[in-house]
Amino acid sequence: MTPSRRFLAHFYMALFVIYLMLPLVVMAGAAFNDSKLPTIVPWKGFTLDWFSALFADGRMWRAFLNSILVALAVVALAVPIGTAAAIVINAISGKWRATLYGFMVAPVLAPGLVIGISTVLFWNSLGNTVGSDFILFRPGLHLSTLGQVSFISAYVMLLVLARLQSFDPGLEEAALDLGASHAQVLRRILLPHLYPAMGASAAVAFFQSLENFNVTLFTRGGADTLTVYVFSKVRAGITPTINALAFLLICVTLVLALVYEMKRRRKARIEAERAAEARRAEAAML
Predict the structure, then answer these.
(1) Contact partners, residue 229, CB within 8 Å, separation at least 6
(2) ABC transmembrane type-1 domain: which residues (predicted)?
(3) pLDDT at position 132, please?
């Protein structure tokens, strides 16, 4: 690469990083500004009062806890469903594969508003048909979970399906020829190959659920989630306590990213050392 192209590449990367990070910096800075409005202009002085107000806001923490619980439930349901769908789609061919793939991807293309209203109408109709007042048929966080799973599982399927493209089917055939059952092949050969994609899809599902608004707004019933609470605060007059919460979430995300990167580099270094040791042993034998 020529020096001019290298400079342009670095310049573009710098602009891209600034474009991504500048709104986060401004939002985080507003959490320390002694102003009743979530802004950094004008700067009225450094303060930590908004963090104190955040920790004293019981409703916000209840909404945040509800969002975490819904996100964990979505991960617990969406990852197995999406993984199973990816395995089935990868195993079949022809029109059935295209049909199943279309059914799984369709919720991603539908607006969240449609999914939220459809979820409420479906369960209400089912409750009226059965003639039961069971809580499952009423709006609540459980309906928010089911509504989100209907489209988040498609993201999981796409990630796992991409990972399956690098899987060698000959490994399954060899294991079956050696006497392994289909359950053993799934548990000891296929799933270990899919674990990285399943972990990534679990993270995607968690954050997709955490920031979901449209589906949750129509299915939550009387419960609050973080996105709905922030929406209600925006209508009534938002305060920098939201910025304080966002700053804490950014810090937690950065710490988790750093921990993951350190573990990845440590694992790569160990694998490189083992490969070098194996090469030295092979050279010594020769």
Answers:
(1) 59, 60, 63
(2) 64-260
(3) 59
